[in-house]
Amino acid sequence: MEPLPAPGPERLFDSHRLPGDGFLLLALLLYAPVGFCLLVLRLFLGIHVFLVSCALPDSVFRRFVVRTMCAVLGLVARQEGSGLRDPRVRVLISNHVTPFDHNIVNLLTTCSTPLLNSPPSFVCWSRGFMEMDRRVELVESLKRFCASTRLPPTPLLLFPEEEATNGREGLLRFSSWPFSIQDVVQPLTLQVQRPLVSVTVSDASWVSELLWSLFVPFTVYQVRWLHPVRRQLGEGNEEFALRVQQLVAKELGQTGTRLTPADKAEHMKRQRHPRLHPQLAQSSFPPSPGPSPDVQLTTLAQRVKEVLPHVPLHVIQRDLARTGCVDLTITNLLEGAVAFVPEDITEETQSRPTVSAPKVRPRSSQVQYLVGIRFVFNDDDFASPLTL
């Protein structure tokens, strides 16, 4: 039996918060008045939770009190396999689902999580992150943090995916830098369930995620501890990260993919610009009645060939058959997303019948102008416009 193909970004990230099912949407509309009342009430209670968490020192009593108060806010934290937790392990590895994963795990055990790609600020501290200076110094700073001899030791909770997914289909590729800190890590799995609406949306801010968490009746975070994993002899950081990713994915019943945060950014970019999406590019293939698909494909390929004459025609047709959009195919070819061997256009140019210069110049300048405009609307950064 062949293994199932890895899911694409459209299955790892939810783009819509509201349910598509009519019955669930009706239930959400009926629940909305109650949800708004809970939202207002929980906002005031949330201020007290924040003050209590700041006032009490880190201890078992503080975690119990804050965990109980969070349950009133609708944030329920559960754990399995707590006996597997090894207090000697200083690096905890988890999958990433919501912006509040580190807060939930911190209700179960003492841990610290650095906030990546963000300068130290009051918001960073208030959200429960450990303040770090710069990404280039991150690994060395975390190594010094783990090597400290203070008691009791505070482990690090790291999310190698670096971006949150919907937690249903698969995992992003684990970055290797968290596995360069120490040779022993303890993985844990995190599953989040919420009624009526999606757990997380790809382009939502942490503020909107917090408001939705307070709006819905409850959100259940299920944490499952796994056995510590030690680096094998001669195993590099990449291999170590891949092995832990497969272990976490197997425990969750999901697939470990090779997608990265850059793929998520590209997926969000295409969602924000629907005209780049193949399914929405209605202008590329006009509806019937009209020319046959083969004729349409040849016509569109010739349009791309005029802009990029050095690209082989069969490569253009193959990508157009997949995207169905001239703009997206040109973007893929210019960005190197499609591999090809450039054609020698010298012979082709010499074989064509010569025409007078006044007829060629307007066409060339027009193509140059159109390509420049296309680059601007696609938000692509080029040092200078392409001259054909």
Summarize the structure in words.
With 388 residues, the protein is an alpha/beta fold. The chain has helices at 9-12, 22-55, 60-72, 101-108, 122-126, 138-147, 206-215, 237-252, 261-272, 293-307, 313-323, 326-335, 345-351, 357-377; strands at residues 75-80, 91-94, 156-158, 170-171, 184-193, 219-225, 229-230, 255-256. Helices cover 45% and strands 9% of the residues. Strands 1, 2, 3, 5, 6 and 7 form a six-stranded mixed sheet that branches. Mean pLDDT is 80; it is low at 276-290 and 347-388. Its main location: endoplasmic reticulum. It is found in: Endoplasmic reticulum membrane; Lipid droplet.
Count the helices. How many? 14
Major β-sheet annotation: 6 strands, mixed
Euclidean distance between termini CA atoms: 51 Å
Any idea what the radius of gyration is? 27 Å
Please state the structural category: alpha/beta
pLDDT averaged residue by residue: 80
Please indicate the percent range of residues in DSSP E strands (runs of 2 or more). Answer: 5-15%
The portion of residues assigned to helices is 40-55%
Shape estimate: globular
How many extended strands? 8
Segments where pLDDT lies below 50 for 5+ residues?
276-290, 347-388
* SSE pattern: HHHEEHHHEEEHEEHEHHHHHH
Pfam family, one: CUE
Organism: Heterocephalus glaber
GO cellular component, one term: lipid droplet
Protein name: Lipid droplet-regulating VLDL assembly factor AUP1
